[in-house]
Design a protein that fits this description.
Blueprint: E1 3-12, E2 15-24, E3 35-40, E4 51-53, H1 55-64, E5 67-68, H2 70-79, H3 86-97, H4 118-164
Parallel strand pairs: 1-5
Antiparallel strand pairs: 1-2, 2-3, 3-4
């Protein structure tokens, strides 16, 4: 039985994801695997955080005689036991594990600030304007209530005259 360490493609269209597996050479790409040894996610931005390998199991399969594919051989060289990028990978994974901080939005920047001398004058003018608008709002409200009281009386006489008409047969 000849064993190869290669990638098994998962994911969806335009979003690939790979599992690094030990598999027989005669099996198809999505065939039954002997053991899953790690993952490779090319969509992660930090290059050193893309690969996660079970270093002990990869070393075991290599000692048994498994042959890695070209891409997996490069990943093992970088991130396997005694790899060249192991420290960088650990730093990148620690950076990804930290929660992202969202800054506090604070006050809106589009509001203009008034000078202190104008603020008291504006505060005195505001109550006078509020009283004028309240008085204007009360007067039309009284007129509208008188109009609405007369309107339903006219409608009721029309509806009763339609009901009393005999139906044409």
């Amino acid at each position: 039985m000849s064993v190869k360490i290669r990638m098994k493609k998962l994911g969806r269209r335009h979003r690939p994801f790979y599992r690094i597996c030990a598999i027989e050479t005669r099996k198809p790409r999505h065939g039954k695997v002997l053991e899953e040894l790690g993952t490779y996610d090319p969509m992660i931005g930090d290059t050193d955080a893309r690969t996660q390998l079970n270093r002990e199991r990869v070393a075991h399969w290599l000692s048994v005689g498994a042959q890695p594919s070209d891409k997996v051989a490069v990943l093992i060289k970088k991130y396997g036991e005694n790899g060249t990028h192991v420290e960088l990978q650990e730093a990148a994974l620690a950076k990804l594990a930290q929660p992202k901080s969202i800054p506090d939005p604070g006050a809106p920047a589009s509001l203009p600030k008034q000078p202190e001398s104008e603020q008291p004058a504006a505060a005195e003018a505001a109550p006078a304007e509020a009283e004028a608008t309240e008085a204007a709002a009360e007067a039309p409200a009284e007129e509208q209530s008188e109009v609405t009281a007369e309107a339903p009386a006219e409608e009721s006489t029309e509806s009763t005259s339609e009901e009393e008409k005999p139906a044409d047969e």
